[in-house]
Design goal:
Belongs to the class-III pyridoxal-phosphate-dependent aminotransferase family. Its cofactor is pyridoxal 5'-phosphate. InterPro entries: Aminotrans_3, PyrdxlP-dep_Trfase, PyrdxlP-dep_Trfase_major, PyrdxlP-dep_Trfase_small. With 420 residues, this protein is an alpha/beta fold. It has a domain at 74-307: Type I PLP-dependent aspartate aminotransferase-like (Major domain) (Aspartate Aminotransferase, domain 2, 3-Layer(aba) Sandwich), CATH 3.40.640.10. Helix content is 39%, strand content 17%. Strands 4-14-13-12-9-5-8 form a seven-stranded mixed sheet, sandwiched between helices. Strands 1-2-3-17 form a four-stranded mixed sheet. Strand 6 and strand 7 (153-154) form a beta hairpin. The longest helix has 24 residues, at 310-333. The radius of gyration is 21 Å and the shape is globular. Bound molecules: 4'-deoxy-4'-aminopyridoxal-5'-phosphate. Residues 64, 119-121, 124, 147-150, 195, 199-200, 228, 230-231, 254, 264 line the site of 4'-deoxy-4'-aminopyridoxal-5'-phosphate.
């Protein structure tokens, strides 16, 4: 599969060689790197991408969940065009940020007050700083294998570049060990930060009992519960928190909510968020030149109010749920030890016999099989993440899902034979 890939992509290869002279590894986002060289995409329309060698792909990656609206959504393009015409660097409160904040609060009522950032990473960094400031405590609980941004990886990278906090580690979905760890950290614990479904960590849903325990135990020790919904906020009209019926103290958002522009936000209980109110003495500073950039504000507002209605979210997730079920049925029929995990429109294919329940379960996955699935699907015209992540976008319809299921059906017997 790798030889066929090399032969089919000389222009992507040449571009990578040039880029390596300028950027270490030829890229500026580690996640996009893979051997022998990554593809360069030249353009996208709807749910289709075109690469430098002229191949087209159905985009099942959806920019790692930020591309929910697809490429060149006309409503969002129109909003961005108007914002550009209106002047892009106003150096003041902008014309649309309050309306955008209101649209977000309408969807996620636990975000009584919120603030914008440029990325999900920044949103998490600020939420953790806020939790420490508001509680006057130092410790931050995170889960092994969690990813909360480029400077918050635990310990997904062998050499993490972490923002220095006094971290307490626990195991995701391990109810009793984590209950004990929260009680042990007790009066020193500022917050627990968790994704209600581990996204980058392999689309591993949080067990509702585990997440309810986090809510109860943090409250009991006076620590804050921070839900990182950068990825999972798309899993229900009110995010995964409303599907679960759990109200966190703070929530962080990112990815698609900026309509495809660079975006992050954090928010939560009004009395906690008020620590950022500059009219209060001793308030926390929060700066950022592009926090309220007019392109993000316009694209995000249009996306959330005009395109991503609650019914559109429900439809997208139902489509994802059906796709996941169909692929799993095909894989199991072929006797292939591969499984697709996830919820709704977010999923991850794993070379495992059963769905992973904890990050540790991924240790048994064969990386060569992950690679083969990735390159086979590319050859068939489907773009996914090398680690197996797929995130549906609004333009993906029945035809694209049927085509993917057909490709998996054709490939599954060979995958099964190789795994056996
Ligand atoms: N939190 C989670 C759960 C994420 O998946 C990501 C991005 N993959 C981030 C935070 C960081 O967001 P950004 O890339 O916008 O900094």
């Amino acid at each position: 599969a790798v030889e066929a890939y090399r032969a089919a992509n000389p222009e992507s290869h040449a571009r990578h060689e040039r880029a390596r002279q300028l950027m270490p590894g030829g890229n500026t986002r580690t996640v996009l790197y893979y051997t022998p060289f990554p593809l360069t995409m030249i353009s996208g329309t709807g749910c289709r991408l075109k690469d430098a060698d002229g191949h087209t792909y159905v985009d099942f990656l959806g920019e790692f969940t930020a591309g929910l609206f697809g490429h060149s959504d006309p409503v969002i393009a129109e909003a961005i065009g108007q914002a550009v015409a209106n002047g892009v660097n106003l150096g003041s409160h902008g014309p649309q940020e309050a309306a955008f904040a209101e649209a977000i609060k309408d969807r996620f009522p636990s975000m009584e007050l919120l603030r914008f950032t440029n990325s999900g990473t920044e949103a998490n960094v600020l939420a953790l700083a806020l939790a420490k400031h508001a509680t006057g405590r130092g410790k931050v609980m995170v889960f092994e294998g969690a990813y909360h941004g480029g400077t918050l990886t635990f310990p997904a990278s062998e050499v993490p570049v972490n923002v220095p906090h006094d971290y307490v580690f626990s195991r995701f979905n391990d109810v009793e060990a984590t209950r004990q760890a929260i009680r042990d950290a007790g009066p020193d614990l500022a917050c627990v930060i968790v994704e209600p479904m581990m996204g980058s960590g392999g689309c591993i849903p949080g067990d509702p009992a585990f997440l309810r325990m986090l809510r109860e135990e943090t409250e009991a020790v006076g620590a804050l519960l921070v839900f990182d919904e950068v990825m999972t906020s798309r899993l229900g009209p009110g995010g995964l928190q409303s599907e679960l019926g759990i109200r966190p103290d703070l929530t962080t958002l990112g990815k698609y909510i900026g309509g495809g522009m660079s975006f992050g936000a954090f928010g939560g209980r009004a009395e906690i968020m008020s620590h950022f109110d500059p009219s209060r003495s001793g308030s926390l500073p929060h700066a950022g030149t592009f926090n309220n950039n007019v392109l993000t504000m316009a694209a995000g507002l249009a996306g959330l109010t005009k395109r991503l209605t609650p019914s559109a979210i429900l439809e997208l997730n139902a489509r994802g749920e059906a796709l996941r079920r169909r692929i799993n049925a095909v894989l199991s029929e072929a006797g292939a030890d591969l499984v697709v995990s996830g919820i709704g429109s977010l999923m991850n294919i794993h070379p495992l016999g059963t769905e992973p329940k904890r990050p540790g379960d991924l240790a048994g996955a064969d990386q060569r099989m992950r690679d083969l699935v990735f390159f086979d699907l590319l050859e068939d015209g489907f773009y996914t993440a090398r680690r197996g992540l797929m995130a549906l976008s609004l333009p993906i319809g029945d035809a694209e899902c049927d085509a993917l299921v057909a490709a998996v059906t054709r490939r599954a017997p060979r995958w099964a034979a190789l795994l056996g």
